[in-house]
Specification:
The protein has 85 residues and is an alpha+beta fold. It has one domain. Helices cover 25% and strands 38% of the residues. The strands form 2 sheets. A 4-stranded antiparallel beta sheet has the order 1-2-3-6. It is globular and about 40 Å long. InterPro entries: At5g01610-like, DUF538. Pfam families: DUF538 (PF04398).
């Protein structure tokens, strides 16, 4: 969580409204030219994006297991997911 806190002050942050968090994260994926299904979004409590650095994060209620059927790849998403894009 400390890594996320380092970026929050200057980031776009959405939290509390599951539908809004999902919408904003989908908009970012589309803006970056990434597949909409890249992040299976369930119960997202917070979504943030620090445009200057490209750092983005999601905080969700529980860990999620997902299988990408087309590529037959099983993945696991922790309650905190963050990356630089």
């Amino acid at each position: 969580m400390q890594m996320i806190e380092n970026y929050k002050a200057e980031a776009e942050v959405y939290h509390g409204d599951l539908a809004l968090c999902k919408k904003k994260s989908m908009q970012l994926l589309q803006e970056l030219g990434l597949p909409k299904g890249l992040l299976p979004l369930e119960d997202v409590e917070e979504f943030g994006y620090h445009r200057a650095s490209g750092f983005m994060w999601l905080v969700q209620k529980k860990k999620i297991e997902h299988t990408f059927k087309k590529i037959k790849q099983h993945v696991s998403y922790a309650t905190e997911v963050y990356t630089s894009v």
